[in-house]
Design brief:
360 residues, alpha/beta, Rossmann fold, Dehydroquinate synthase-like, alpha domain, 2 domains, seven-stranded mixed beta sheet, 13 strands, 19% strand, globular, binds nicotinamide-adenine-dinucleotide, binds glycine
C-alpha cells in the first residue's frame, strides 16, 4: 500500500493507494452510524464489500444509491441524499462515505459539507479520474444548467481510500478519461512524469497494475502539493488554478453538449489542446511541443479536437467560468511543457482563433 498525506494543518488527511483496500476496516473513522453514497452502477460491484465489515461491527449503515451519470450531478440527487440522511436520523457525527467516481464524490462531498452544517467525509474513489484527482483536495459541488460545478463548497475528506483493484471493472473509455487528468500533472508541473507517461502509456492502457499504481501515486503527490499550497484557490498567480489546465474550454464543451455527452476527461483533453494552441499563438510553446502532447493524447485514446459548437458559443459559455474574475477570463496556459501559468491578458481574438483551430 502507498501512503501519502495532504498537509492542511488540522484538516490534514491520508491517501491510501493499493489493491484490496475496500476490505480495510473503517471502524476507527466511524461511530454508531454511517451513510454510504454510491450509484446504481457501482453499488452491485462494490457496495456490499465496503458495507459488510461495518455492519459486522454493529454499525448502522445507510445505503444511498443514486442514478448514474454526470446528468444527475444536480439538486435532485443532492436532495435525495438529504432526504435519506434525515429519514435515517443521521446526526452531525454521522460520516458520509462516497463510493464511486467523481460524480458521486462531488455530490456526496457537497452533502457532507452542508448537511447539518457539515459532517465527516470519506472518499472511496473507484474511477481512475477520481483516484488521481477528484477525491483529493476537497472541491465538492453540483452542476447548474448554465455551468459546470457552479454550486459547491470546499470540504476536505478525513481519508481517501483508492482501491486500485476497482479499476479492473472500469470501461476503457472511462480509463482514458482519467488519463487526461494524469497527463495534466505532467504538463503543468512534472516534466519527468510527462516523459514517463510517454514511455508507459501502453502499459497504462493495458491496466498494468504497477504502472497504474505509479501513475496514481505521482498524480496524488502533485495534487497534494498544489492543494497544500493554495487550498482555496485564492493565489493571485498560479496556485491551485493551474490544476484547471484545459478546464475552461472543457467545461464549455460539457455544458454546451449537455452533461454526460462528452466525458469530463474527454472534454479536458480537447480543452487542453485549445489551451496549448493559445500558448503557441502567444509565442510560448513551439509547434513541436504542441504536436508532442497531441500524440500523447491520441495514444491515450482521447479526443484532440472539440465539438463544433461555434466560437461564439464557446466564448459565451466560458464567460460563466469560475475563472472569470471582474469580467476577465484568467486562462491557464503553458510557458513550457512542465510549466503552467495563469494569464488574464490573452487577447479575445487569439482565444477565438485557438478555439477555431482546435474544433472538429
Ligand atoms: P463518473 O463519476 O461519472 O464515473 C464514470 C462512470 O464509471 C460512471 O458511469 C460510474 O458509474 C462508473 N464507475 C465508477 N466506478 C466504476 C468501476 N470501478 N467499475 C465500473 N464502472 C465504474 O465520472 P468520473 O470521471 O469519475 O468523474 C467526473 C466528475 O468528476 C465530473 O463531474 C467532474 O466535474 C468531477 N471532477 C471533480 C474534481 C474535484 O476536484 N472535485 C476534479 C476532477 C473532476
Ligand atoms: N480539479 C481541480 C482542483 O481540484 O482544483
Amino acid at each position: 500500500m502507498i501512503n501519502l498525506n495532504v498537509s492542511l494543518g488540522a484538516r490534514s488527511y491520508p491517501i491510501h493507494i493499493g489493491p484490496a483496500l475496500l476490505d480495510m476496516p473503517l471502524g476507527s473513522f466511524v461511530g454508531r452510524q454511517v451513510a454510504i453514497v454510491t450509484n446504481e452502477v457501482v453499488a452491485p460491484l462494490y457496495l456490499e464489500r465496503l458495507a459488510r465489515p461495518l455492519k459486522k461491527a454493529g454499525i448502522l449503515v445507510t445505503e444511498i444509491i443514486l442514478p448514474d451519470g454526470e446528468s444527475h450531478k444536480n439538486w435532485e440527487s443532492l436532495n435525495a441524499i438529504y432526504d435519506r440522511l434525515l429519514a435515517e436520523r443521521c446526526d452531525r457525527t454521522t460520516p458520509i462515505i462516497a463510493l464511486g467516481g467523481g460524480v458521486v464524490g462531488d455530490l456526496a462531498g457537497f452533502a457532507a459539507a452542508t448537511y447539518q452544517r457539515g459532517v465527516p467525509f470519506i472518499q472511496v474513489p473507484t474511477t481512475l479520474l477520481a483516484q488521481v484527482d477528484s477525491s483529493v483536495g476537497g472541491k465538492t459541488g453540483i452542476n447548474h444548467p448554465r455551468g459546470k460545478n457552479m454550486v459547491g463548497a470546499f470540504w476536505q475528506p478525513r481519508l481517501v481510500l483508492a482501491d486500485t483493484d476497482t479499476l479492473n471493472t472500469l470501461p476503457d473509455r472511462e480509463l482514458s478519461a482519467g488519463l487526461a487528468e494524469v497527463i495534466k500533472y505532467g504538463l503543468i508541473r512534472d516534466l519527468a512524469f510527462l516523459e514517463w507517461l510517454e514511455a508507459n502509456m501502453d502499459k497504462l492502457l493495458a491496466r498494468d497494475a504497477a504502472a497504474l499504481s505509479h501513475a496514481i501515486e505521482r498524480s496524488c503527490i502533485n495534487k497534494a502539493e498544489v492543494v497544500a499550497g493554495d487550498e482555496l484557490e485564492t493565489a493571485k498567480q498560479g496556485g491551485r488554478a493551474l490544476l484547471n489546465l484545459g478546464h475552461t474550454f472543457g467545461h464549455a464543451i460539457e455544458t454546451g453538449m449537455g452533461y454526460g455527452v462528452w466525458l469530463h476527461g474527454e472534454a479536458v483533453a480537447a480543452g487542453t489542446m485549445m489551451a496549448l494552441e493559445l500558448s503557441r499563438r502567444l509565442g510560448w510553446l513551439a509547434d513541436a511541443a504542441v504536436e508532442r502532447v497531441e500524440r500523447l493524447f491520441v495514444q491515450a485514446r482521447l479526443p484532440v479536437r472539440g465539438p463544433k459548437l461555434g466560437a461564439e458559443r464557446y466564448l459565451d459559455l466560458m464567460g460563466h467560468d469560475k475563472k472569470v474574475i471582474a469580467g476577465r477570463l484568467r486562462m491557464v496556459l503553458l510557458k513550457h511543457l512542465g510549466e503552467a501559468v495563469t494569464w488574464a491578458e490573452a487577447p479575445q481574438t487569439e482565444i477565438r482563433a485557438a478555439i477555431e483551430a482546435r474544433c472538429e
